[in-house]
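Lecture 7 notes: from sequence to structure.

We start with a single chain of 327 residues. Read the sequence below before looking at the structure.
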Amino acid sequence: MKKTLAIGMLFALVLSLISGCGTAPSSSAPQGGVVKIGIFQPVEHPSLNTIRESIIAELERLGLGDQIEVEYKSAQGDPSTLNTIAAQFVSEGKDLLVPIATPAAQAAAAATSSIPIVFAAVSDPVTAGLVKDLQITDGNITGVSDIIPVDQIFELAAGLTPQAKTFGVLYCSGESNSYALVEKAREYAQQKGVELVEVTIADSSELQQAAQSLVGRVDAIFTPNDNVVATAVTALADVAVRAKLPVYVGADSMVADGGLATVGIDYEVLGRQVAAMIEQVVKGKAIADLPVQSVTDFAKIINTDTAEKIGLSLSQDMLKDIQTIGS
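Now the structure, written as tokens:
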């Protein structure tokens, strides 16, 4: 009798394993009940914080407040912590992951191939290895790109500081999203006969020294919306102001922190766009039906205080169609 019972239990176990192996991974959040969402980002800084706050506010505005449960974590600048956070969210049974910025998105993608992922602010999702094509999301991941119009930033520089012919390009070697943007800068420079002097940093503690190494060698500095640079852009701005160098940046928050100007993204708009994608997933839409989106509404922004500090005179004609930050 005991032997018969043991064989029956073993048979049932085998059947359950076969059934489990045949289950296809889900590409949409479960419907019915509260959807548990894990939001995380690599570091605290204004652009990423704005995106997160905008996502949460827009989800509330969309009427999802009682349908979702949001938990937020920051890696506080430690890349290895991103993997820990992603793994923790997976083990906790989160129904949807929302990583902000490329390193967080890569950590999420490495942690799960079944839980839906909607990323925010990944400049080049293809190069980052998240999707094979922006129009084909046949895995479990999609989101909104924050690719910036590098050529338009250099055109703005040509209008504001036409004497600048040599640009220092400063970015973090560990930020994969910066590589695609720097490549666009190289393409522009080759077409327009602009010289680039590239300097990379490993972390924000090296930013001041890297900026000082460009003084006397360049006429202006360009840095993309690099997360590491953004956390300490005031150090770059301080060096540049003393040297009377214009700094063209990749985000509005970096202009507010002392950069001269950008043609950049409104990160509140990006956050709302991400929230709209999350809403569709929460309501049952599959990731495969949600191709990667991009923000296409850019704004020219200039810091008039910084302009004054570096001795740049701004006429009303120059400021036409440009948003200003400063007193």
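The radius of gyration is 23 Å. Keep this in mind for problem set 3.
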